[in-house]
Write a structure and sequence with these properties.
This protein has about 180 residues and is mostly helical. It has six helices and no strands. The chain has a single domain, classed as Ferritin, core subunit, four-helix bundle (Ferritin, Up-down Bundle), CATH 1.20.1260. Helix 2 crosses helix 5, helix 3 runs antiparallel to helix 4 and helix 5 packs antiparallel against helix 6.
Length: about 180
């Protein structure tokens, strides 16, 4: 993996998960970093009240930027290797995930932020298998992000979107990347 990617995405969960995976040498693991077997449940009745607007906006910003980052990464892989699955299928799903989060911004009268990521700033991989491994790590980090957020007191519409995006990553994207890595 090229260092330009790490520099361009410092601070994101994807980089942390990728660094942990690559440094531990556990590329053959069956679960990416941060993805466990625990299920996500709704907050209990003793949970704090719903997030205020500032906290909710920050949470949604993290979600949409994570989706943008995955879309940029997968677009880069497609540019480097051609129209290959699973990237050709999943790149559009990532765009749809970002659009679903953008709707949450709009429903609150907020403007969804622009992407901080471009395909040109994403890494180039030596092999398609390495690209698949990066996709697998990115999806694991995405699932972990959603898992941490779903444990909070969220408005129903936000919970539905986050859960749907998480489930698509867990049940569709992660297995697809696992098969090609």
């Amino acid at each position: 993996m090229r260092t330009a990617w790490i520099g361009a995405t410092m601070g994101s969960l994807t980089v942390l998960a990728a660094a942990a995976l690559l440094s531990s040498g556990c590329g053959a693991s069956s679960s990416p970093p941060g993805v466990g077997s625990t299920s996500v449940t709704s907050p209990s009745s003793t949970s704090p009240s719903l997030l205020d607007d500032t906290a909710l906006r920050g949470l949604l910003e993290a979600d949409i930027q994570d989706e943008y980052q995955a879309q940029a990464l997968y677009t880069r892989v497609l540019a480097d290797f051609g129209d290959l699955r699973p990237f050709s299928n999943i790149v559009e799903a990532e765009a749809q995930h970002a659009r679903s989060v953008a709707v949450l911004f709009a429903s609150r009268g907020w403007t969804a932020p622009a992407s901080r990521f471009t395909p040109e700033a994403m890494p180039s991989f030596e092999t398609f298998r390495e690209a698949c491994q990066a996709g697998w790590v990115a999806e694991g980090a995405n699932i972990a992000l959603y898992d941490s957020q779903l444990g909070q007191a969220l408005p129903d519409d936000v919970r539905r979107v986050l859960q749907a995006n998480r489930d698509a990553s867990l049940f569709n994207h992660l297995p697809a990347f696992d098969r090609c890595r």
